[in-house]
């Protein structure tokens, strides 16, 4: 991954989509970027698990849990598997659990909060849909850049 800062990217480009600052940072990797893969997962992380099991080359999973804080959509086991399978990070419109362990895994995660309760597993969700939250639209194949200052979404690779 090439080095970048979201602040510098904002200075250099006028056509960026910048997420509202609603996310907390988890994982040992504070800076991450990659091609977007989308998952709709409302209080059920079955589709998150299916996508995590795919081998990728630095992709970022964007999960829309509709900001539910009723349960976690990602825990330490899936975060570890994601790292092993080449995922760069996650942006989650929802919660994670096992944050103490996750903070030692070399993966980047932005999520709304933590919640110790696990999700149900009813095989409900969707892949590849446009997701709209945090003031931006996330689309499959677009790119995301995240660091300590925020999250930027673009329709093309810029670094």
Structural notes for this entry:
This protein has about 160 residues and is of the alpha/beta class. The chain has one domain (about 5-155): 3-Layer(bba) Sandwich (Glucose Oxidase, domain 1). It is built from four helices and twelve strands, in the order αβββαββαβαββββββ. The chain has helices at about 5-10, 45-50, 75-85, 100; strands spanning about 15-20, 25, 30-40, 60-65, 70-75, 90-95, 110-115, 125, 130-135, 135-140, 145, 150-155. Strands 1, 2, 3, 4, 5, 6, 7, 8, 11 and 12 form a ten-stranded mixed β-sheet that branches. Helix 2 (about 45-50) links the parallel strand 3 (about 30-40) and strand 4 (about 60-65). The longest helix is centred in the middle third of the chain and has 9 residues, at about 75-85. It is globular, with a radius of gyration of 14 Å. The model has no long low-confidence stretch (mean pLDDT about 95).
CATH topology: Glucose Oxidase, domain 1
Based on CA inertia axes, which overall geometry fits? globular
Return residue spans where pLDDT drops below 50 for at least 5 consecutive residues: none
Largest sheet: 10 strands, mixed
Topology as H/E string? HEEEHEEHEHEEEEEE
CATH superfamily: Ribonuclease E inhibitor RraA/RraA-like
Radius of gyration, CA atoms, in whole angstroms: 14 Å
Number of strands: 12
Share of helix, binned = 10-25%
**Approximately what portion of the residues adopt beta-strand conformation?**
25-35%
| CATH architecture label name | 3-Layer(bba) Sandwich
Q: Give the domain tally.
A: 1
SS-based structural class? Answer: alpha/beta
Mean pLDDT, to the nearest integer, reads 97
Q: How many DSSP helices? A: 4
The CATH class name reads Alpha Beta
Distance linking N and C termini: 9 Å
């Amino acid at each position: 991954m090439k080095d970048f800062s979201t602040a510098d990217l904002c200075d250099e480009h006028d056509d960026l989509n910048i997420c509202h600052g609603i996310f907390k940072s988890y994982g040992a990797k504070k800076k991450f970027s990659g091609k977007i893969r989308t998952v709709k997962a409302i209080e059920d992380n079955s589709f998150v698990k299916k996508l995590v099991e795919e081998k990728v080359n630095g992709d970022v999973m964007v999960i829309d849990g509709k900001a539910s804080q009723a349960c976690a959509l990602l825990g330490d086991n899936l975060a570890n598997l994601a790292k092993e399978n080449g995922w760069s990070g996650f942006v989650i419109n929802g919660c994670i659990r096992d944050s103490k362990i996750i903070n030692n895994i070399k993966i980047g995660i932005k999520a709304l909060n933590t919640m110790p309760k696990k999700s149900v597993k009813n095989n409900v969700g969707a892949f590849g849909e446009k997701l709209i939250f945090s003031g931006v639209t996330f689309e499959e194949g677009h790119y995301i850049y995240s660091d300590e200052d925020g999250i930027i979404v673009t329709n093309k690779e810029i670094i």
